[in-house]
Amino acid sequence: MGREFVELFDHWAEFYDETVAGKDLEYQEVFLNYEHILQEVANLVKGNVIEFGVGTGNLTQKLLEKGANVTGIEPSAAMRDIAGEKLPDVPLLNGDFLDFQINGPVDAFVCTYAFHHLKDTEKAEAITKYSSLLSKGGKVIFADTVFKSEEDKQAVINEAKMNHFLSLAQDLETEYYTTIPVLDEIFQSNGFSVQFKQLNRFVWLIYALKL
Question: What is the total count of domains within the chain?
Answer without folding.
Answer: 1
